[in-house]
Write the structure tokens for this entry.
Amino acid sequence: MSRLAFGLLLFVGAPALAAQSAEPPIRHPAVAAALAAMRADNSWTVDQQISLCEIPAPPFKEATRAEEFRRRLAALGLVNARLDSVGNVIADRPGRAGGPRVLISAHLDTVFPEGTDVTVTRTGTRLDGPGIGDDCRGLAVLLQVAKAMAHAAIVTAGDVIFVGTVGEEGEGNLRGVRHLFEAKSAGAIDFFISVDGTGFNVTTAAVGSHRYRITYEGPGGHSYSAFGMPNPIHALGRAIAKIAEFQVPGAPRTTFSVGVITGGTSVNAIAFSAGMDVDLRSESQAELDRTDALLQAAVQAALEEERARWPASERPLTVKIEDLGKRPAGTQPDSAFIVRAALAAAAALGVSSRTGASSTDANIPISLGVPAITIDGGGRGGGAHSLAEWYDDGDRGWLGPQWALLIVAMLAGVSSS
């Protein structure tokens, strides 16, 4: 997208959203000073990334990292640094003119279980360690944005709220960001930014997901002497075969997967239980719901077919469907101001950025109609969700934090005095 030229963004006590410009305030004296400080202070950002990443934050056990993140935000001069009732870290940087309230966040949790070695090793500009990109990079970017804004005494028209969320990964089911909006624990939000991962792309659409654990159960028995009863594993196989034949659209992109199967105790036993974990995803809530209906029908049909296969048997066969989490889908146009701001800020820094869809903390606000994006944290990375995860700061690592700061400045507005 080409850079838009609507003049330097200045707010002089005018909070109206209509006063916003899609031209990055890169020449504003305070913003320019903050950008320069970020470049000079890049090693500090990397140190924050490493030290936070070496504090374990396994699923549902983010408290130790959360408390340290809260302490660091408070030390940077943010006010009312606190933990809400689900464990999110929230800290405020008040604006002066009642302008738009901008929330910038990164998630505290990782996918790695308790006991994982989270030591980070450094080789030149490359860092290796579980979670180093997803999302220790995001947390470090937030700290640098807060530090640079304080250093340059940037005055914004609207409040800027810094948040470390819990429960972004896996079965956490976005519980942190859900709470932010359902309980309004961070107050009203006009714009939402999540910093998650590495690179310079922008997530503008929410990939929704429905996840289930489906378990067929029966009394089980000896494979020879008890033969003739419904078999939970056979029922599971029927269901999986039906799922494999689902027809879904390529646009909007919709997917399905049986990711885990369990069951059985011995080669010479009819299992008493067999289960699968199923993941459904789509950029469209309507298509996600349609695929969900197909899944429910397939699961029930497999149950009835396995029962019917053994009409003389009086042994029961049942199915249990457990909800492992639902993430809403949603879209917003690339013409939305928050998207244009992100792309223009990237262009002003000389980096290319493209938009796309993903499943992130931004799913919740997007589904509620709140302007929201997830941006990468700069640098390069790979191996996310694996023990071989890595991040490379390269020779321009400061660009990630600079990008985040420019977007915040455009959304919250910078004052001329």
The chain has two domains: 17-206+329-412, 208-327. The domain at 17-206+329-412 is CATH 3.40.630.10 (Aminopeptidase). Confidence is low (pLDDT under 50) at residues 1-19. The chain is about 30% helix and 25% strand.
